[in-house]
Amino acid sequence: MVDNESMKLLADDLALGSFSDAQPWSVATSELQWLSAVDGLRAAQARALPGLTRPPRLPPVARACTVVAVLGRSIGAWALFERRRPSSRADISRRVRLSAEKLGTTYIKLAQIISAGEGVFPPELVAECRKCRDQVPAEPYATVVKILEAELGRGVHEVFTWIDPVPLAAASIAQVHAATLRTGEEVVIKVQRPRIDDIVRRDLRVLAWLAPFLVGRIPVAALANPPALVELFAETIIEELDFRLEAANMLDVAKVLADLDQRGFVVPRPHPEFVTQRILVMERLRGFKFDDVVGMKAAGVDTQAVVKTGMLGFLEGAFLHGVFHGDLHGGNLFVMEDGRTALLDFGITGRLTQDERMAFLRMMMSATMNDVRGQVKALRDLGTLPPDTDIDAVIADLGLDGPPLDPTQLDPDELVKELQRVIKSLLAYGARMPKSLMLYVKNLIFLDSAIATLAPELDMFAVVTEIGTHFATTHGAAIAAQLGMPAEPWEIDMDGVKAGFGVDPATTDRLTYAELKERRALIQKRLTGRLLD
């Protein structure tokens, strides 16, 4: 029987965040000593970033020699034997991926960042880097115990009655083990790999030194030149090197979801006591892997509802609060038997400044209203284009002021030529991918793949209408006030939405994801074997 005090603690917890009902402990009444250091840690990281990405006169010599040797052999072999092949871009992408795996943790993580960069990097490179998402070899259990005891300041058996020596997962920064506390709660322990902080910072110095020499020399960066990519990578990976920040991210995202009443998500509670720079003990949640459609449907889970909840929760968190999980992928979440989605791994969390959040709101509003100028201006304000960019010139140069092109109606030469023109124009304006937009696009790409897995027959036009209507009716007045717009609800321009999918608004009333996937396959087929300048 649950007593009144326990019920009150649970109510307090659920008011603070979208947590489970099991409540192994309370984060509402506990003294989270590790939390008091978070603001100072974030400020220190921000101060350190420019130094991490500024090209040094001399890098760590031994590591630099290793990196140059590995990359040099790969690029040299490509230049000698594969450069003139029709598969040239695929060949160098494969060699870059193999080099990353050979160079280890930091470079594997960099490849994983690139793997989410569809539209920023060539598809061949993205496809190769996705292979770096596979399980990384785990650290020996003895090493894990040594790290745990150093961080806890006591023997592991004084805290845990059981730790599974075989990790649940092993990634480039850390690995996770199932365990049971002496107080009886089932938990997951996230343990940082040894010396990873020093390794990453050393490799960042090498990358910062090397990046300027690679500009224009490797045909694998469309909208992100190597120095800009190093900056983006440093901003992203530096957050993952202190688990106190991750635990705080868990609380912040859970609070945003609770404030939005998005209870279709569950965030595991971090332990009030056992969180340090290198270890993170959290509540253990269970569910179906994200691609286990058969298991979900057998349990009566509405997979279309899972997808819609995921899309809405992510968009509301980004647009209304400026805080969102920044690394959605199949390994970082699962679906519980009650249909709720459990979110895991908060090492990368999107945090928008007020100006960035306003730009995101304007981008959403202008997209649903088919306001091209508003969309380009919002992208400029996000940092994709320099602050002094002439918006009207960009619209004219990219041909955004004319009727939309249907890429499936272009022959291969026309399609390649059009892509070359757009990329060349964007580069001429100094286009880049800021961290906030990269994380946003990265999550949209995952949600796209989630639809393919869980709800291929979902009508894309209906989803856009449903989400747009929800924002207009639930948040319209608040958004209008923030943006200084008239208070009346905005109307979704469905013709513009349809044109954005590249279909004829007059003849297309419905577009399932499966049909959209067929269109993309046709476009990809027409691009096969073609190289972009």
Overview of the molecule:
This protein has 533 residues and is α+β, with helices and mostly antiparallel strands. Among the domains are: 42-134 and 199-240, no CATH class; 354-445 and 460-527, no CATH class. It has helices at residues 4-16, 38-53, 61-81, 88-103, 105-115, 123-129, 141-152, 196-214, 226-237, 243-259, 293-298, 303-321, 354-368, 372-381, 391-397, 412-428, 435-454, 460-483, 494-500, 513-527; strands at residues 160-163, 169-170, 174-181, 186-192, 265-266, 270-275, 279-283, 288-289, 323-325, 333-335, 341-343, 349-351. The strands form 3 sheets. Strands 1, 2, 3, 4, 6 and 7 form a 6-stranded antiparallel sheet that branches. Helix 13 (354-368) packs across helix 18. The longest helix has 24 residues, at 460-483. It is globular and about 70 Å long. The relative contact order is 0.09. The model has no long low-confidence stretch (mean pLDDT 85).
Notable traits:
533 residues, four-stranded mixed sheet, 20 helices, 12 strands
What is the topology?
Elements: H1 4-16, H2 38-53, H3 61-81, H4 88-103, H5 105-115, H6 123-129, H7 141-152, E1 160-163, E2 169-170, E3 174-181, E4 186-192, H8 196-214, H9 226-237, H10 243-259, E5 265-266, E6 270-275, E7 279-283, E8 288-289, H11 293-298, H12 303-321, E9 323-325, E10 333-335, E11 341-343, E12 349-351, H13 354-368, H14 372-381, H15 391-397, H16 412-428, H17 435-454, H18 460-483, H19 494-500, H20 513-527
Parallel strand pairs: 5-11
Antiparallel strand pairs: 1-3, 2-3, 3-4, 4-7, 6-7, 8-10, 9-12, 10-11
